[in-house]
Amino acid sequence: MKTIVMNLLMAFLQLFAEAGNVVNVTSGTVNAYTGVGDTSDAFNGEIKSFYDTSLLVNARAEMYYAQFAVTQPLPSGRGKNVEWRKWNTFARASRLQEGVIPTGQKFGMTTKTASIDQYGTYTAISDQLEMHAYDDVILGATEEMGASAAETQEVLIRDALLTNTNVLYCDNITLATGEAASTPTSPATMEGSATVMSLFSPKMVAKAVTIMKKNKVPTIGGKYYCVIHPSVANDLRNSKDWIEVHKYASTREIFNGEIGELHGMCFVEDTFAPILGGEYKNKASTVTYASYCFGKDAFGIIDPAEGGLEMIVKSKEQAGGPLNQFSTIGYKFETNGATVLYTERVLRIMSCSSFSAVDEPN
Fold first, then answer.
1. pTM, two decimal places
2. What's the mean per-residue pLDDT of the chain?
3. Pairing between β-strand 179-182 and β-strand 172-174 as defined by DSSP bridges
4. How many of the other CB atoms lie within 10 Å of CB of 75?
5. Which of 3, 88, 245, 329 is most exposed, with the fewest beta carbons within 10 Å of its own?
6. Dihedral sign of CA atoms 86, 92, 97, 103 in order
C-alpha cells in the first residue's frame, strides 16, 4: 500500500512540474528548472510591432503638408520614376459662319515626372543604458525617431514647393494707420521695420482667395487651405473676422493642425513652415515667411509599394556585435518630396511678422 501511495504522489507532483516548467519570455520560452530555451515562438515580432506603431503614430501627428497631396502609388519592380498626366484644355467655341467649316483645335496632354530618393537615420543604445536606465530608452528613442521622420518629410515637401513660381507678396502696411504704403515685388522690397511691415493681413487673405478663384482653382471641400507658421498665425488671429476651429469643427472634416478660418481660407499651423533668410531677407535684413495656399490636387507625392516609412528595431542579439553590446533604432523611407502638378493651385504668400526680428531661419 505504501508503494502505491508514493507512486501516486510522485505522479501528482510530476503533473504540476510539467505544467509549470515552461515560462513564456520575450525570446520565446524557457524551462524554469533547467534554463533550456526555445526561440521558435519568440515575441520579438510583437515588441517590434509596438515600437513600429509608436514611430508611425508620432510621425503622422506632426505631418501637415502631406495631407493635401495627391498620392501616386509606385508598384514594386516599376523603377524609380512616376509620371502624372493631365489633358490640355480647349478654348471656348466661336460663332460659326454659315457653310464654312471652322478650324479645329489641337488636343494634347501635359506630363509631370518625378523620381524617388531614399532617406534614413538610426541611433544605437548600449546594453548598459538599456538595462539600467530608469525610463524605457528604446521607446523614447522610437518616439523621437517618429518626430525626426515627420520633420524630414515636412522639410522635403516645403522646400520642393518653394520653387513654385506662383507668388503673392503681402502689402507693406503702415502699422499706425493700417493703410497700405506700397506693394513689394521681391523679398528685398518687403518692409520689416517697427513702423512699416509686409503683413499677411485679412485683406491679403481675401486677395489670395480672389486670385485662386480667378485662376479657377478647385476647392478642397468648399475651402482653400493655407499652411502657415505660428508667427504668421499670431498676426492673423487678431482679426475680428477670424473664426476659431472649434466653432465649426462639428460641421465638416478637420485637417491635422487646423486652427481657424478667415474669408473662405482655412489655416493649418506648422512650426516647419518656412522661415527664410539669406536671399529671402526683407528690407530690414530680417527673416520672411512663406505660407502655402492649396487647392485640390495641387501637388503629388510618390508612395512606393515597399519604400514607405519603415521602422527598424534590432535587438542587441541581432545588431550588438560579438558581445551583444547595443541595440539599434532607426527608420528609412523613399520619397520625391513633392511635385507641383498645377502651378496655379499652389500660391506662395510671402510676408513678414512681428517676430521677424527674433525668429531664426529653419
1. 0.78
2. 85
3. antiparallel
4. 9
5. 3
6. negative
